[in-house]
């Protein structure tokens, strides 16, 4: 049988019987409890299969041997505490959300959002105890598909129904049950009851519970001079509470949002009172309107409103004839939606979803593992085949390379021999050519010398001819010059004679003119 492990950080307290029932009443799964403390029989709710997680040497082996399919923590803070273990060993985590751990109020929002951010990464599943808390969890960032509302159930046989009537004389007993803490609203209830007492002096308020606000509550009782009118009864177990419900006439719980953001889910004390046949008065707070329909199965007042709360108590005191109609309808609601046996069936159905997911995950993991193994084998075979092929190719290539190398070596040797022969031939040819070249050069040199001598001789003859021609030319030029000079001199002489002749003629003419 598959096992659900419940994680608790301490022994279950007297007022937490509902948690104990959710563990021991499971039948479709084997249940064990784990926690960080030593088990003790000095508790109201001992566990047969309890294990101190800090003393388990090999947790992996322990979880495998126990065949654990999930760990269920009964509070958000407990889920956060066991999360590292769930992450390390890959175990699904379930967290019940009951009140403060599902609050999205400003005072506590950041703390809760941070807490569930870590849980969400692991894929945790959440079981809020009412729709109101589920809405708060959505605002805190929890996926809707990971949430399932699981109402807390009560033992109907422990809280049998009986018709109530208002007493004509004696005490009218108003009862309230809950821890003495801010969110239970006991200070508001005491202030409201002051108004009731002023109208109905035979009315008394009995408060069952213990807690951190006890001194403040006692101080309020003294302030409103309600000693012996408001009676603090202390903590009681479920059987004792059941007996006190039978003695009461009206039940009232003034739940409210605490200063630190703490809130209710749906208080079990209201369910127990409704199951027992008591007219109930409460507030429009958190999940309470999911339990009580105003002026049909009970009376609802705004939270922290003492006047309206007093009106609710007064409503039933003044209308005793409607009690049975209200209480019978209320009992039916409890039987249909808050019977512990029905809720255990629903709880096991939700576990099966986790089991299915785990099985599918395991199957998927195994399939993936087998696929990986098969792929690995195929890969290794392919690798081996490829290696062999590559080896053959390499061997063939090496063989071809070797043949090629040998061929190239022979070719090189042949080429070298041919080269050497060619070199020798070229060397002989060069020597022969050199000798011929030297002979040809010598012949050319001698020819050139002869040509040079002939050219020099011709040049010398030409030069001598030029000198002679030049001298002759100069002589001729000189003769011509002298002839020209003589001609010029003769012309000038003739010109002078002409001018002289003209001058004499002119003179004679002038003298002739003068004589006349």
Describe the structure.
- With 516 residues, the chain is α/β, with parallel strands linked by helices.
- Helix content is 59%, strand content 11%.
- The protein has twelve helices and twelve strands.
- It has helices at residues 17-24, 59-66, 76-89, 106-122, 131-139, 186-199, 214-223, 238-247, 268-276, 306-318, 323-337, 340-515; strands spanning 3-7, 30-35, 50-52, 68-73, 93-97, 125-128, 172-177, 203-208, 230-234, 250-252, 280-283, 299-301.
- The strands form two sheets. Strands 3-2-1-4-5-6 form a six-stranded parallel beta sheet.
- Helix 3 (76-89) packs parallel to helix 4 (106-122), helix 6 packs parallel to helix 7 and helix 6 crosses helix 10 (306-318).
- The N and C termini lie far apart (192 Å).
- Mean pLDDT is 82; it is low at 359-365.
Give a quick precis of the structure.
The protein has helices at residues 17-24, 59-66, 76-89, 106-122, 131-139, 186-199, 214-223, 238-247, 268-276, 306-318, 323-337, 340-515; strands at 3-7, 30-35, 50-52, 68-73, 93-97, 125-128, 172-177, 203-208, 230-234, 250-252, 280-283, 299-301.
Would you spell out the secondary-structure blueprint of this structure?
Elements: E1 3-7, H1 17-24, E2 30-35, E3 50-52, H2 59-66, E4 68-73, H3 76-89, E5 93-97, H4 106-122, E6 125-128, H5 131-139, E7 172-177, H6 186-199, E8 203-208, H7 214-223, E9 230-234, H8 238-247, E10 250-252, H9 268-276, E11 280-283, E12 299-301, H10 306-318, H11 323-337, H12 340-515
Parallel strand pairs: 1-2, 1-4, 2-3, 4-5, 5-6, 7-8, 7-10, 8-9, 10-11, 11-12
Helix pairs in contact: 3-4, 6-7, 6-10, 9-11
């Amino acid at each position: 049988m598959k096992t659900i492990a419940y994680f608790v950080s301490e022994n279950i307290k007297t007022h937490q019987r509902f948690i104990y029932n959710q563990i021991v009443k499971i039948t479709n799964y084997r249940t064990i409890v784990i926690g960080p403390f030593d088990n003790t029989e000095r508790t109201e709710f001992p566990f047969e299969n309890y294990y101190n997680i800090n003393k388990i040497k090999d947790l992996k082996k322990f979880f495998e041997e126990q065949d654990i399919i999930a760990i269920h923590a009964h509070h958000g803070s407990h889920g956060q505490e066991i999360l590292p273990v769930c992450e390390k060993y890959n175990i699904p985590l379930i967290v019940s959300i009951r009140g403060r751990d599902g609050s999205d109020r400003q005072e506590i929002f950041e703390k809760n959002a941070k807490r569930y951010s870590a849980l969400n990464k692991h894929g945790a599943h959440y079981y809020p105890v009412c729709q109101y808390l589920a809405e708060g969890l959505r605002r805190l960032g929890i996926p809707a598909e990971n949430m399932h509302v699981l109402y807390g159930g009560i033992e109907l046989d422990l809280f049998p129904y009986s018709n109530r009537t208002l007493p004509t004389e004696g005490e009218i007993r108003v009862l309230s049950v809950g821890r003495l803490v801010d969110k239970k609203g006991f200070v508001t209830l005491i202030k409201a009851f002051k108004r009731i007492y002023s109208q109905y002096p035979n009315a008394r308020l009995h408060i069952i519970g213990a807690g951190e606000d006890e001194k403040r509550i006692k101080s309020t009782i003294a302030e409103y001079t309600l000693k012996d009118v408001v009676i603090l009864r202390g903590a009681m177990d479920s059987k004792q509470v059941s007996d006190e419900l039978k003695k009461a006439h009206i039940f009232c719980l003034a739940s409210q949002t605490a200063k630190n953001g703490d809130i209710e889910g749906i208080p079990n004390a209201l369910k127990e009172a409704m199951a027992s046949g008591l007219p109930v008065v409460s507030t429009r707070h958190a999940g309470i309107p999911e339990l009580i329909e105003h002026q049909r199965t009970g009376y609802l007042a705004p939270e922290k409103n003492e006047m309206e709360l007093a009106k609710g108590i007064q409503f039933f005191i003044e209308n005793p004839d409607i009690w049975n109609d209200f209480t019978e309808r209320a009992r039916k609601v409890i039987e249909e939606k808050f019977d512990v046996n029905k809720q255990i069936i629903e709880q096991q159905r939700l576990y099966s979803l986790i089991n299915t997911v785990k099985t599918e995950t395991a199957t998927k993991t195994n399939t993936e593992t087998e696929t990986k193994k098969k792929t690995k084998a195929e890969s290794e075979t392919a690798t081996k085949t490829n290696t062999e092929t590559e080896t053959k190719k390499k061997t063939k290539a090496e063989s071809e390379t070797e043949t090629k190398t040998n061929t190239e070596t022979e070719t090189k040797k042949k080429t070298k021999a041919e080269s050497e022969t060619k070199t020798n031939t070229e060397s002989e040819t060069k020597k022969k050519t050199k000798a011929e070249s030297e002979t040809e050069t010598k012949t050319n040199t001698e020819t050139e010398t002869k040509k040079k001598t002939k050219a020099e001789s011709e040049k010398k003859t030409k030069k001598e001819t030029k000198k002679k021609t030049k001298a002759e030319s100069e002589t001729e030029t000189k003769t011509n010059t002298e002839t020209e000079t003589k001609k010029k001199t003769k012309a000038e002489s003739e010109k002078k004679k002409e001018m002289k002749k003209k001058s004499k003629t002119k003179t004679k003419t002038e003298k002739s003119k003068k004589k006349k």
